[in-house]
Specification:
The protein is an alpha/beta fold. It is built from 10 helices and 8 strands. Helices cover about 50% and strands about 15% of the residues. Bound molecules: NADPH dihydro-nicotinamide-adenine-dinucleotide phosphate and (2S)-3,4-dihydro-2H-pyrrole-2-carboxylic acid.
């Protein structure tokens, strides 16, 4: 899916996530001359992108993509005097009402991307309660080249989606590490175990995405009757150990998103 930027886009904050979106957009064919980045220290931006170290007081972006940390939003708001036509905010937790009061955009769309957007394999959830159909289509066209997009019906579910797919890559990277370490504990060289673990997660994810069968059915396909996978699954399934662990993991992340929202409101 290619991206044609027809109007200037300003990206405020090009750190881990803003930078990943920028790389994803450029890889999808966006014209870098349509993109202006504001970030105090970022290096190595794609050629053709305009960089400001501070937000110019007279900046008047048509599309503003806000990608600073939630705790940094106040500093941007205090300098910004414009009112963009479309605000896309990726800030975890921070609600539409807060964004709308701070940036006075005509339309506000919350986006919750995840890190694989940099290679066009991300997941981005979107929510808006004030964008009309054409503006929603415009936001969709901007985000769709970065991977799967899902519109979320109710803003109150945004903290949950942030915990699942926004934070999810962090949990999966930790899982890859743990899988590799477990292989190392059985005697494999660490670098080889890391390669095996990473490729196993990649292949399994691709297969799950391509298959009509549920992940649960696919797990059963790996577990030959009387074989070794079942013995391992019995450990993960005992007292719902893995399910319970992930419920507590996502609940902790969702709680933090709610705290960030409360801080941004005040
Ligand atoms: N990381 C992820 O996987 C995801 C993050 N998000 C959201 O993305 C946002 C950014 O997170 P992340 O990329 O991890 O954080 P980073 O700290 O990596 O990125 C934020 C960037 O904004 C810069 N910045 C700070 N103040 C300003 C300012 N006033 N004007 C312009 N730029 C500024 C920071 O510079 P400096 O470092 O010098 O402060 C930094 O480069 C957060 O709101 C987060 O909730 C959403 C989904 C996934
Ligand atoms: O950790 C964070 O706060 C952000 C939100 C989703 C992923 N990273």
């Amino acid at each position: 899916m290619t991206l044609s930027l027809t109007t200037p886009l300003w990206l405020i904050g090009a750190g881990n996530m803003g930078g990943a979106m920028l790389r994803g957009w450029i890889a999808a064919g966006a014209d870098p001359r349509q993109i202006t980045v504001v970030d105090p220290f970022v290096e190595g931006l794609p050629e053709g992108v305009t960089l400001h170290r501070e937000l110019p007081a007279d900046a008047a972006p048509d599309i503003l993509v806000l990608a600073v940390k939630p705790q940094q939003m106040g500093a941007v708001r205090d300098i910004f005097s414009g009112s963009p036509r479309l605000l896309l905010s990726i800030l975890a937790g921070v609600e539409t009402e807060t964004l709308s009061a701070a940036f006075r955009a005509v339309s506000n769309v919350r986006v919750m991307p995840n890190l694989p957007v940099s290679i066009g394999e991300g997941v981005s959830a979107l929510f808006s309660d004030d964008a009309d159909a054409a503006t929603r289509d415009e936001a969709q066209a901007l985000i769709a080249p970065l991977g799967l997009t899902e519109w979320i019906a109710e803003e109150k579910l945004f903290d949950a989606v942030t915990a699942l797919s926004g934070c999810g890559p962090g949990f999966l990277f930790r899982f890859i590490d743990a899988l590799a370490e477990a292989g190392t504990a059985l005697g494999l060289p660490a670098d080889q175990a890391a390669r095996l673990a990473t490729a196993t997660v990649k292949g399994s994810g691709l297969l799950a995405a391509a298959s009509d069968e549920s992940a649960s059915t696919l797990a059963d396909r790996v577990a030959s009757p009387g074989g070794s996978t079942r013995e391992g699954l019995n450990v993960l399934d005992a007292d719902e150990a893995l399910k319970d662990l992930l419920k507590r993991t996502l609940a902790a992340s969702a709680k933090r998103n709610a705290e960030l929202a409360a801080a941004a409101r005040s």
